Amino acid sequence: MPWVTRWLREGVLTTRYPARRDDYGAHFRATVTLQTPREQLTAGRARPGPTLAEVAARCPTSAIGEDGAVLSLDRGRCIGCGRCVASRPDVFRFSPELEGAEVAREALVVATSEAPTTEDVEGAMRALHARTRALRRSIHVRHVDAGSDGSEEWEIKALWNPVYDVQRLGIFLTASPRHADVLLVTGAGASGMAGPLRRTYEAMPEPKVVVAVGTEAISGGLVASSYATRGGVGSLVPVDVWVPGSPPSPFAILHGMIRAVDLVVGR
Amino acid sequence: MNTLRLVTEEPVTTEELAEAVHTALADGGTFVGVFGVPRGSAVGVVALVLGGATLRRIEGVVDRRSPKYPALTPTVPGALWYERALHDLTGVVPIGHPRLDPLVFPVGGQEGDLGVRFPIDAAPNERLVPATRALSGQVVGEGVFTIPYGPVRSGVFESVEYLVETDGEDIPRLRVRPYHKHRGVAAQFRGQDLEDGLWLAERYEGTLSVAHATAYASALESLAGVEVPPRGALLRLVHAELERIAHHLDSMIRLSEGAGQAVAYARLAWYRERVLRLIASLCGHRFGRGVVALGGVAGPPQLDLAEARRELSDLAARLESDLERLMLTPSFLDRLRGTGALPPEAVAKHQPVGPVGRGSGIAADARVQLAYGGYRLVAAPAVAVRQAGDALARQQVRIDEVRGSISLVLDGLSALRDASGPWRVGVDVPDGQGAAIVEAPQGALVYLVEVNGGRLSEAIVRTASFHNFALFSSAFQGDILTDFVFIEASFDASMAGVAG
Predict the structure, then answer these.
(1) Which chain A residue's Cα is nearest to B151?
(2) Helix B305-326 crosses helix B230-258 at what angle (to 10 degrees)?
(3) Which of A2, A157, A230 lies closest to B127 in CB terms?
(4) Sheet of strand B30-39: strand arrangement
(5) What is the pLDDT of residues B302-330, one digit of tens each?
(6) Would you say A157 and A145 are in contact if contact means Cβ atoms under 8 Å apart?
């Protein structure tokens, strides 16, 4: 009985996202992005500090590509350690990345010269949404850990706490892969999970969507070259949506699911 | 500065290893673990024993042409899982080990099987495939069958497979297979740049980033003979204790959910979210990554300290009231009392650490015993101990520790306000070996690093979750299937740390 009053005590704690913006996390050091284009870049080069080639060589996950003319940064590899931001703040900056999920792996790469992928990405998005149109307000989610460090699981579980409460959006965890529409996969693609992950994927009915949650799931992160991982889950199951971050925050994961399914939200 | 002293004993032959470890333990030491490390074409079998503030490192070298040595487990029961992992990762066979099933990575499994490559031999980017045929599926007993539970489970869990042997209700035997999510993290330290090693340590157990980063950095700092300045030490303490609160709340959230306490579940989940948000306000990352730097912390907190105090005090008052109510709720307590009780003999043999050990009467806490870093600058926490050894005792220990952690954070924030000086100092790490122990939420976390030519040549990591989980199957005396969730939540193991 005493719990009843506690249930009502706090009023509404739940975010209005995605119907309204939620400013939480605007200062997160989620992943790194490039400062605005070439002008900044040439200005920066005159300053003392390591050259961009040196910065690229020091990136622990080789997320920075530098071949003289084009500088690129792969958000799917970036673990957000911030070494490049510290050494060249004129070129790199942290980005909160609350809405960083992409439907194409290449779209996670930020480059100084604009890559002409925008149309492809939109095409991929339209195809994905055509496939998932029927799901709309009833999305059943299954999660598989394929060798995570454990933090992604906390952030996924947080989606069902009172602050994010994704059930209000019609997103539910399901007890069986037979009922699952969305598969959230975390971890660097541990070899020992290749079979179980594949079986879960195959047990799901069509249409199904796979979301790779976190930098480790996208590229393997710091354990990409380990004997026991496959450098991300992309080689184990076909991935539809990529959510960068080490780990991505609950909002970023939710955004990934919204990308996966053209969620109808009341405005 | 880390008060822990690392003593490297004279190398012994592998025949003498068990005897040497036994002698060190007889002097009042506790067994920390035994690990295999590459020594050229040979394998070093490294045993660690902690006595007071001295960590003894005893190494015997095994020739790969005859990859075996007399097992420690018959005389040192705590070595049971360590020797299984050592066998998986190096192929070295501990002769006389009672149960050498694959644990963290089933490779080959057959002695002398030509063509088998063990993880210790793997080149970068070489992919090894776990050989599941090496796993035994034998069940003994009339009417007994095995329920495999996992590695994919309903809900959001880290992957682990339990083989529950049952006749329908009781659980006479339980086997744990954590190998599915083995990532080989410890091996990834080899050859790393010292700063990159810090990023890797933060991801060994991703929800324990501060504990791992602190242990890793402290091991290098002790090797370099560097003392972390007060501000750096205090900010590490603040983050370490917030991490502890978040973890203990996670255990309580799972217990409340299991017991169907929907309101307690929702409120505790909200508090945990608030703790993660407080951590993020202080440093920009919800798991405190990037806080710890070699020689101190990366920089000052991003949140006004008075603001942090206000938020934590408000949270503490609400949490206290709900925890009091929870511990007066019979339908919650009934599920924990007597559930998952660890038999005293098993506790005496395995010496579990952290809340699992303290719930069974082992009054060990590295924060008090080693008083490392910031714990020397604020009032020491009381060691929370209970004797019963069941899920309730572990819950009571965690409640006491949450209270203790809240006052430590408040003290730490006050001390930070009054402290001055640098946040970090330069660390010039010479070649050699350094060790550190920190009290992670699950218990003592041990790092032993070897530096050669300015890079890491080896890192031995002993997680509390791995150490304690060897005891998990012993906690099922007389328990039934529906108690499983409570026993698992009361262990609160990080599977990333168990599988490695």
Answers:
(1) A196
(2) 30
(3) A230
(4) B5-8, B54-62, B42-51, B30-39
(5) 999 999 999 999 999 999 999 999 999 99
(6) no
In chain A, the residue whose alpha carbon lies closest to the alpha carbon of B201 is: A222
Nearest to B445 by CA among B217, B162, B250: B217
Give me the pLDDT at residue A267, please. 33
Answer for the pair B350, B77: CB distance below 8 angstroms, yes or no.
yes
CA dihedral A110, A116, A120, A122 (to 10 degrees): 70
- Angstroms from A122 CA to nearest CA on chain B: 31
A187 — contact with chain B (CB < 8 Å)? yes
CB-nearest partner of B286 from A153, A226, A249: A249
CB atoms within 10 A of CB B390: 24
A42–B contact, CB cutoff 8 A: no
A156 phi/psi in degrees, rounded to 5: -70, -45
**Looking at the complex, does the CB of residue B299 fall below 8 Å from at least one CB of chain A?**
no
3-class secondary structure per residue, B3-14: CCEEEECCCECH
Instruction: Give me the tens of pLDDT residue by residue for chain A, a chain 267 residues long.
Output: 578 888 777 888 898 888 888 888 777 777 788 886 654 655 555 566 788 899 999 999 999 998 877 889 999 999 999 999 988 888 888 887 778 888 889 888 888 766 556 677 788 888 888 888 878 778 999 999 999 999 999 999 999 999 999 999 999 999 899 999 999 999 999 999 999 999 999 999 988 999 999 999 999 999 999 999 999 999 999 999 999 999 999 999 999 998 888 765 433
Contacts of A29 in chain B (CB under 8 A): 284-285, 290
Q: Is A256 on the interface with B (CB under 8 A)?
A: no
The chain-wide mean pLDDT, for chain B, equals: 92
Backbone angles phi, psi at B443, to 5 degrees: 130, -170
* CB pair distance less than 8 Å for B159 and A200: no
Longest Cα–Cα distance in chain A: 69
Partnered with residue B288 across adjacent β-strands are: none
Residues 148-187 of B with CB under 8 A from A: 151-152, 154-159, 179-185, 187
Task: Please write the tens of the pLDDT for every residue from B333-377.
Answer: 999 999 999 999 999 999 999 999 999 999 999 999 999 999 999
A79 close to B (CB below 8 A)? yes
Nearest CA in chain B to A174: B154
Q: Using one digit for the tens of pLDDT, what is the confidence trace for B213-271?
A: 999 999 999 999 999 999 999 999 999 999 999 999 999 999 999 999 999 999 999 99
**Chain B residue with Cα closest to A149:** B206
Kindly determine whether residue B159 and residue A193, on different chains, have CB atoms separated by under 8 Å. yes
